[in-house]
Write a structure and sequence with these properties.
Length: 228
Amino acid sequence: MASRINFKTILAKYQNVGKGNVRLTQSTLFLSKPISPTTTVYNFDVLESQTQTLQADEIRLNLNDEYIITQIGFYLQGKVFSRGLDTGKRVLTTYAPYQSDFAEANKLSSFYDGAFQIAVNNIVYLDKYDTRKSMYTPITNSQPLNALTAAATLDSIDFSKNGLNDTEPLLTLSGAKKNTLTLTLPSSVDIASFTYTDNNGNVYSIQYDRVCVKFLGLNAQNGASFQK
């Protein structure tokens, strides 16, 4: 019921400012940056028009639209390799997997001690939002994963539906404004690789090489300020 009330309220606000052509749809934004061992600050590109950094699996904001954020999650993204070859599969995790390899996991650990900020047209609307809110370690992953089959293992460490937290008040990004999304870490993280063997003796590895932020919310088509 609450989400329905939000939907009606937001749509009414657009209509009140003369934007009767705005269409609201449930939507997702997924932004990522490559891990760099030489930086502690990550600035995420928000717009589809920023094509130089746009990744195939990213979901960004159209220039004509606005996006109302209802949930935020932070993830480490990894590539899955089989016999040294990239399988094309990408997985997300919500914690540094110390049970798999302590030294490698330690390269990633400070990601969940970070602070996130959102500013729109240089006005800060979210500040010092800690990434630890998204850290999630299910009990099934408190033991080594190599006792599972390959398929089960990959599924068990893909936490894309976990690690999300509600935002209140709601935040709005705009395709017509300057959106500055900044993640600051207390220390740098580095690319980390983990090797697993399934019950059939097949060896594969996951290389975590990107940091990600995921938003759930409402996409306001034609809601940008230069639209009428």
